[in-house]
Design goal:
Blueprint (H helix, E strand, L loop, with lengths): L7 H19 L14 H14 L3 H8 L2 H9 L4 H29 L6 H13 L1 H4 L4 H17 L8 H8 L5 H4 L2 H13 L14 H15 L15
Helix pairs in contact: 2-3, 4-9, 5-8, 8-9
Length: about 240
């Protein structure tokens, strides 16, 4: 899976994390004494806290975070569920703006059925609309992240984004034109136009562990990692 917008420092941090995780997997006994390198101390501390709060095994979460796309996604959100929640709130606001613009297009055009040609017109209309045109950088990223997670939560089989799109957006390498272009963009436009996307903002606040568990479980399904629950020794901060 191509990861756009990953810096050399982020890549090296990931490799260091994998090396440490591999060492732990080889000897996950309670007396595990391999020192945590400073470069990944924050990430390991995050995983340890998540294990304590969620009930998922620490070793299981390590395997999950060894997935490169997962590690890089959390790198982009600063290994913070609070930061992710802020992004989702921005995405929800952006989503409402797009819906307003789509409703305006429908009212002005009096359209009854969406054809490929009408979707092209809608695409052009949205890119010029003031509520949508001003979306840039983190705004586009937030909208993409919001749609991706919400569609994943609802289990909608009609539409899905590759996680590399999310990483590219969070790195600033994804524009509004990207969002509405190509086959995926056409599907997105149709979902917006027909109201089939049906997104809400149902998640609890960032301090709620249910939010973190929901995010982790959704991502685990995407990368096909089975998270295990149960008590397990967690290495000390050495």
């Amino acid at each position: 899976m191509k990861l756009d917008g990953v810096t050399l420092q982020e890549e090296n941090t990931y490799l260091e994390f994998v090396r440490w995780a591999d060492s732990y997997e080889e000897d996950r006994l309670e007396e595990f004494k391999i020192k945590i390198p400073e470069v990944i101390r924050r990430q390991i501390t995050f995983v340890k806290k998540l294990a304590r709060d969620s009930g998922f095994k620490f070793s299981s979460l390590l395997k999950f975070f060894k997935e490169k796309v997962i590690f890089q996604f959390f790198t982009k959100i600063k290994f913070s569920f609070v930061e992710l929640h802020k992004i989702l709130k921005k995405g929800f606001k952006a989503y409402q703006g797009v819906l307003d613009a789509v409703s305006e297009f429908i009212a002005q055009s009096g359209i009854g059925k969406f054809t490929a040609e009408k979707l092209k017109e809608l695409d052009k209309f949205l890119l010029k609309h003031p509520k949508v045109r001003r979306l840039a950088g983190i705004g586009v990223a937030a909208l993409l992240v919001y749609i991706w997670f919400n569609m994943t939560f609802t289990g909608d089989p009609q539409f899905d984004f590759d996680m590399s799109d999310l990483l590219a957006a969070l790195a600033g390498n994804f524009s509004l034109a990207n969002l509405f272009s190509g086959t995926q963009g056409t599907k997105l436009l149709l979902l917006f136009a027909t109201g089939a996307i049906g997104l809400t903002f149902p998640w609890p606040g960032p301090a709620r562990i249910q939010f973190a568990i929901g995010i982790i479980q959704t991502l685990a399904q995407k990368v096909r990692v089975r998270l295990q629950r149960g008590k397990e020794p967690i290495p000390a901060d050495i």
